Task: inverse folding
């Protein structure tokens, strides 16, 4: 009897153990490629962002399909495919024939890895990450939201322009893929990528590796390994010959060089202004409005995050002041006092739902940031609507251009109005989210999210109402978190929509619609 | 009588039952480890209640830390300043058979930072995890000038409120189910000194965050966080005094996670962290000779070394009361 009782109890616990044991924790989007909704024969004529047109980058004409060199390449490919290892096969499956998804994920991973704010030194001072000494400490970069959105914008724009160029040459030379030339070759992917010169995947691999290596210099080796694996999987998929890949690499190299040249002179290197400049912005706001934001960390950070990010060159807006929002309520005004009461009420009544919303959208330190979150949504829509690589690149490009412009506009407002955070002015106020090191008005989450949502609503009109609702939830999440005023969120949402319109207008006229 | 220990980040809880009669008391040892949380260690020890006894325990403890180990780097952090944790635990222990006891308990925990601090974060509070456990005595043997007891405990704990584990260092628990398997050996000399050793394997499941993405040496596109399982080892030396009215002991507890990542620089901990710690403690339990069934306990322990763990000091007090629940 005693033994039976014990056996029963033990077996019950064993069942619980087994039940709880297995959970899949995905490190990337588990898709295995898909058939594209369209092939885009006219894509080479679309208007790129950085270059004049698809033929602005030159590549050599391919060898004809009846040439000895071509036939030799076909034989080499068959030999290589016959010797594929399991790791090779896994890589082919992983990369898919829309590898922009994977490079976007790699970018998000590096953003999350480097999104760490430098802590204080022993003496209470702070050391800034320095690209001239990337190992630090602190390591370079600090991939905060302005840094992150800029990484994503340059990455996506280079990818998009590179693919317009690739599409131009695909339909100029019209060289069929090896699996069409030789029926004994079976491609690992769906067979609607039937023109292989140049390889669009190789454009993506090389352009992405180059842009990300510039942005994350300590990851050069990691990124080179990714590029090598990706390029090899392009060959082993049976969809490209080595000459297709080499031509794609040429385009990828050229377009990323052009993108990085713009990045080098866009003003970002001055964004983390010295203390004197930072102090002058606070003084100007004090004189103009009678308030200024103060960092309340211990020890106090001498300069806020990127005070001059608002002066970085925008993609679609000529002058940032065109998009500057109306002033916030004056400190002590009735509207201000009403918001103080609202924030106190949220803080005193943290509901399960408000906490969930605050955390879902927090995307704070150590994560892929709000722009990263919107890239994840874009990725899922791209797969849901089976976009081809060119349209995928276009989606990411306009999404990230609009969000970067949104960020620049938001930062202009932040340091022009220099509005205090709730914890600075409400005595004893406590938050459930971390208060960032920059002024309150307007909310970065709100602007990034509204800008991102507008672009996604334009590209995926079926999703318009849901993405706009998400953007509003992302905006109010900051108020629930206790780190933003209600008007930071509502005005920020309007600002994001306004800024996005400039990029969407550009998109409407690029020839893709 | 029962007893309990709680260490902040790791709720660890431990219960000893002293038999009602001194005659039996001198013969029995038992230990029970209850519950879960951030790290785990396992206290060991304890006495068995006989098949008619039930024991209630109410315990309060206070923990705090100024410094913590970020990986292996010990640091302070003025964003959180000093973090305080107050816990109240209620627990029941039931003698089912003379060699089989059942335990159940749940703590209420409140955390917050002292002022001033740079982060202005709200603390957290709530009921943490329900722990149930069974302890079985498989060995109880007279050996020369002493007596050797061997016990095994199996425990299970699970969150009973919707607290957020991904809100460190204020989270009140790890937010995961936990299974504990524990073996205890205790040797009591006729001089009333005793030595006890215990080892535990703690299987932990997954904690659910309220976000869809986190970084753990790579991207994770899921709210589920794999909480590392752990092993612990404990060594105790103790003595019974005043005809078994007072028990005192010194203990060492070591805990090691079997996987996990380090806290990243100047970043909050998360449930996926690899947590190691070495903790030393003192404990005393007094049984009122004239108030049958009533006992008081007090303890203090401190984490003296670790990895991804706070340098936590804990002080606690409790009362135990037992009686026969059947004839």
Result:
């Amino acid at each position: 009897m005693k033994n039976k009782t014990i056996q029963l109890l033990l077996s019950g616990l064993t069942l619980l153990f087994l039940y709880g044991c297995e959970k899949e924790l995905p490190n990337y989007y588990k898709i295995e490629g898909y058939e594209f909704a369209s092939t885009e024969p006219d894509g080479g004529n679309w208007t790129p962002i950085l270059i004049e047109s698809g033929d602005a980058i030159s590549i050599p004409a391919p060898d004809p399909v009846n040439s000895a060199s071509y036939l030799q390449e076909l034989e080499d490919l068959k030999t290589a495919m016959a010797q594929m290892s399991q790791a090779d096969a896994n890589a082919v499956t992983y990369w898919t024939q829309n590898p922009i998804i994977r490079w976007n994920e790699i970018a998000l991973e590096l953003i999350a890895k480097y999104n760490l704010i430098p802590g204080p030194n022993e003496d209470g001072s702070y050391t800034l990450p320095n690209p001239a000494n990337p190992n630090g400490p602190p390591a370079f970069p600090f991939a905060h939201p302005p840094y992150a959105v800029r990484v994503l914008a340059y990455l996506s724009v280079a990818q998009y322009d590179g693919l317009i160029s690739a599409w131009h040459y695909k339909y100029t030379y019209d060289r069929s893929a090896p699996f069409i030339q030789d029926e004994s070759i079976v491609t690992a992917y769906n067979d609607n990528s039937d023109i292989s010169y140049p390889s669009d995947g190789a454009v993506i691999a090389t352009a992405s590796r180059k842009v990300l290596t510039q942005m994350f210099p300590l990851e050069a080796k990691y990124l080179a390994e990714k590029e090598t694996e990706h390029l090899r999987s392009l060959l082993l998929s049976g969809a490209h010959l080595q000459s297709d890949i080499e031509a794609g690499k040429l385009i990828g190299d050229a377009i990323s060089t052009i993108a990085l040249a713009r990045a080098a002179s866009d003003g970002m290197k001055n964004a983390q202004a010295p203390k004197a400049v930072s102090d002058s912005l606070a003084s100007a706001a004090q004189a103009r409005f009678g308030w200024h934001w103060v960092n309340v960390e211990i020890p106090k950070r001498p300069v806020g995050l990127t005070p001059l990010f608002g002066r970085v060159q925008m993609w679609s807006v000529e002058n940032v002041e065109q998009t500057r929002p109306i002033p916030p309520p004056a400190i002590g005004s009735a509207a201000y006092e009403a918001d103080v009461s609202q924030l106190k009420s949220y803080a005193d009544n943290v509901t399960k739902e408000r906490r969930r919303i605050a955390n879902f959208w927090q995307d704070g330190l150590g994560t892929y940031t709000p722009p990263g979150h919107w890239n994840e949504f874009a990725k899922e829509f791209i797969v849901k609507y089976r976009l081809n690589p060119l349209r995928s690149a276009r989606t990411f490009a306009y999404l990230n251009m609009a969000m970067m412009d949104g960020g620049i506009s938001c930062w202009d407002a932040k340091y022009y109005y220099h509005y205090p955070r709730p914890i600075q002015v409400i005595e004893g106020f406590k938050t459930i989210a971390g208060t960032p090191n920059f002024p309150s008005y307007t909310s970065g989450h709100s602007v990034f999210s509204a800008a991102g949502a507008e672009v996604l609503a334009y590209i995926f009109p079926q999703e318009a109402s849901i993405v706009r609702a998400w953007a509003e939830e992302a905006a109010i999440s900051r108020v629930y978190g206790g780190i933003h005023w209600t008007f930071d969120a509502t005005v920020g949402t309007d600002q994001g929509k306004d800024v996005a319109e400039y990029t969407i207008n550009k998109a409407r006229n690029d020839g893709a619609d | 009588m029962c007893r309990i220990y709680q260490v902040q980040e790791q709720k660890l809880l431990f219960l000893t039952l002293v038999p009602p009669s001194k005659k039996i008391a001198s013969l029995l040892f038992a230990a029970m480890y209850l519950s879960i949380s951030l790290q785990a260690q396992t206290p060991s020890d304890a006495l068995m209640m006989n098949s008619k006894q039930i024991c209630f325990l109410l315990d309060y403890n206070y923990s705090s830390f100024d410094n913590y180990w970020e990986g292996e780097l010990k640091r302070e952090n003025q964003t959180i300043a000093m973090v305080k944790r107050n816990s109240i635990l209620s627990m029941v222990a039931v003698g089912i058979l003379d060699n089989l006891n059942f335990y159940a308990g749940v703590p209420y925990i409140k955390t917050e930072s002292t002022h001033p601090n740079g982060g202005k974060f709200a603390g957290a509070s709530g009921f943490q995890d329900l722990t149930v456990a069974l302890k079985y005595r498989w060995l109880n043997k007279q050996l020369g000038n002493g007596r050797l007891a061997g016990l095994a405990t199996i425990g299970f704990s699970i969150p009973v409120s919707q607290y957020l584990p991904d809100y460190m260092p204020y989270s009140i628990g790890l937010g995961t189910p936990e299974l504990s398997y524990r073996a205890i050996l205790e040797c009591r000399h006729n001089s009333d000194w005793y030595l006890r050793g215990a080892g535990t394997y703690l299987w932990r499941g997954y904690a659910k965050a309220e976000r869809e993405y986190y970084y753990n040496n790579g991207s994770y596109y899921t709210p589920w966080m794999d909480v590392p399982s752990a092993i612990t080892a404990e060594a105790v030396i103790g003595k019974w005094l005043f005809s078994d009215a007072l028990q005192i002991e010194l203990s060492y507890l070591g805990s090691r996670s079997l996987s996990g990542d380090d806290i990243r620089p100047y970043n909050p901990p998360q449930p996926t962290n690899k947590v190691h710690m070495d903790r030393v403690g003192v404990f005393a339990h007094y049984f009122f000779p004239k108030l049958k069934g009533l006992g008081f306990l007090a303890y203090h322990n401190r984490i003296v070394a670790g990895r991804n763990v706070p340098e936590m000091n804990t002080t606690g007090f409790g009362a135990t009361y037992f009686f026969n629940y059947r004839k």
